[in-house]
Known about the structure:
Radius of gyration: 25 Å
Shape: elongated
Structural class: alpha/beta
Strand order of the largest sheet: 1-2-3
Amino acid sequence: MAALRQSRLVCDTSAFEHPDLGTIADLARLQIAARRLGLDVILRNAPAALLELVAFVGLSDVLRVEPQRQAEEREERLGVEEERELDDPPF
């Protein structure tokens, strides 16, 4: 018997600017249908409002969110050098 390989279905949710309970219901139905096909739904680029609503209705364990990547913090180069007085030359 061959082992089933679970695949991911990535859903870009960045356009959900004003999610409501209908949005959550649709995403939950999508998750149910995907699970029946052996897929796992991952929400990508989820806005904060959507994340809060998913948590509020208690579906954080069901509607999984892809971790957002953080850009590396780099020190900003300003091109300005410190001004200081030069030492007196030795004689």
